[in-house]
Amino acid sequence: MVTWTSYGQYTGTEYETSTSIYQQRFNADGTPNGAETRVNATLAGNQQNSSIMVTQDGGWVVTWQSFGRDAPFNYAIFQQRYGANGLPVGDEMQVNVGGYGEQLAPQALAIGGGSWIVTWESQAVFGQGYNIHQRQFTASSAEVLTSAVETATGTDGTDTLSVNAGGLNAGDIVDAKGGRDFLVMAEAGTLDVTAASFFGGFEVMRGSSGDDTIVVGKTALGGFDTFDGQGGTNVLRLVGGIGAQALNLSNKTIVRVNAIELADTERTHVVVTDKEVALLLRGPSSSKDSVTLSGGTFTAEQRTQLFNQGIETVNDASGTYTPPPPTDPKGPTDPTDPGRPANTAPSDIRLSGWTVQELAGTGTPVGSILATDPDGDRLSYELINTAEGRFKLAGNQLLVDNSFKLDHEQASTHTVTVRVRDTAGHVVDENYTVTVADWVSEVTTGTAGNDVIKGGYGNDRLSGKAGNDCLFGGVGHDTLRGEAGNDIVGGGEGRDQLYGSRGAGSRDAFLFDTRLTSKTVANRHKDVINDFGSRYDSIYLDDAAFGNATIARFLRGKGAALDKPIKMQSGFFKVGARAEDRDDYFIFNRSNKKLYWDADGSGRKAMVEIATLKLQSGEGTTLTYHDFYFV
To answer: Where do the coiled-coil regions begin and end (predicted)?
Structure first.
């Protein structure tokens, strides 16, 4: 077998516009065995750096790196398995399941037992060097997953995978891919979905004809939309929902299931939209489990049933209910009625989930406010601190109210205050801290307001939409679009693509604040301004990054800042190929449209590239010192 990278290959109908991986099989005498074939199914982006490994069954595995599949400006690692007959076994699959940047240089090695290991280089967090990662695969020729360690990969069509009781284990990789896919129990017993090392992509779970127990965790639960127990007496056992966001059974079809057991020992919270599904819930005794019915109301009899089944807090559209306590004639009494126990305030107030993804959409659930009233009074809730409009309450559910204010880079936590009131008039206020989880690579479209959006460590795509916005890329190779309004656009570290907009209504400033201490450093941070208009746009230079003794003297006492830009002195700027005077610190080359920084202003030390500028038509063919400001 030989594999290679091919550019512009003719497919019979057209020429490919990017590189692909091709292979050719040869007989023992060196003659070709069949025609060359393309390995990668996806043509978008470049495919390169292939390697090949022969499997024990006479087949082989090809690995390669693929550009733009995992993130817009990064490489990911993919593989394709072939049988001894030369035909593909399943679809190509992504090998790496994480990583903050480039994934490069894959190699595969057979280790016996039908297994192989793929190794590759993975860019470390913050782009500081590379680590070596590995992942093991085992080929499964069986039609049913067994207790062995196996890998099963679906297609983008409709797939059905059968699995024996106990057929999911540590080390199993089960990925149904796209389409509507079915997981079917081939025999009665217990199937623990949480046991697999990776499980995902299935929408329908079907039991066997016998008695089944199906164990599902929070992550896999989100993917399924249907649970059908089929025959026998069946139990759906749910794991998780403690502290983190609730187990969500909303809008799921659950049929021929006799009970839904909450496996954890305390404080599991479940959200449902179907009362009949809620009435299947069973919680351990004294575990403080709770349920929220969205958009409906339980009857008093149904609430009592849930209490008897171990659910100790019931929330619906009419309020929050807990089991009434037994009357203690020796306890505190109501002074207006000495024979009656005194009414007390709500207690055990808690938030079921406290983490939300940054830029999560408006209406995204964060968690439910749960409380106990010792007297069984109905409770109501009010959000008296919304974290400056970031959150809102709907009933007892804390929801996102403004997604664009949830930016991890600006604030990783926010405090909200909830007021709980019972029908006797008792009021209790509680503060909760909500954590904003980081997107490694952020994508946002902005709003009509004046947005401030900061990227993180990945390759972000940030847009400001309307308004006077501030977009900051952070680390990574980012794409920032100010769009309408007077925007400040700063790529930060990495090789960034920067866009403003045209005309007097869009006076944009492009910010550069990364210290370019050497040509090597500068090569990692070359930006492109794609639509600079000298008539209306500006370039902001952070004097902490672009400074020396002369510039410091010029700026002394002026208070240069982002909200107080100071126009550059004319002598600091030159149009030409190189510095000629001792204060020619910033050079714009009209031929290649590149902007350079010369720290000594004399040309003795090599100047380094800041950015390439694509000038708007009708806006001039060069730059002047009037375009530059220190901040």
So the answer is: none
Give residue 339's pLDDT.
46
Q: State which amino acid sits at residue 394.
A: A
Question: Vertex 611, ends 482 and 454: CA angle to 5°?
Answer: 40
CA-CA distance, 562 to 540, in Å (whole number)? 8
Residue type for position 320: T
Strand 379-385 versus strand 443-444 pairing type: unpaired
pLDDT per position as a tens digit, 108-146: 998 876 788 999 988 764 455 678 988 877 665 445 667
Exposure of 34 by Cβ count < 10 A (0-12 exposed, 13-18 middle, 19+ buried)?
A: exposed
The domain tally of the chain equals 4
**What is the three-class DSSP state of 507?**
coil
pLDDT digits (tens, 9 = 90+) for 168-221: 888 788 888 888 888 989 888 999 999 888 888 899 999 988 889 999 988 888
Read off the DSSP letter of residue 304: H
Supply 399's token pair: 């929801």
Same-domain pairing of 148 and 280: yes
Residues 461 and 543 in one domain: yes
Q: Which amino acid is at 416?
A: V
Other residues' Cβ atoms within 10 Å of the Cβ of residue 54:
15
Residue count of the chain, please give it.
Answer: 631
Asked if 300 and 213 sit in the same domain, the reply is yes
Instruction: Return the H-helix or E-strand segment holding 349.
Output: strand 347-351
> pTM of the prediction?
0.44
Q: What are phi and psi of 478, to 5 degrees?
A: -105, 155
* End-to-end CA gap in the chain: 59
Is residue 338 included in any domain, yes or no?
A: no
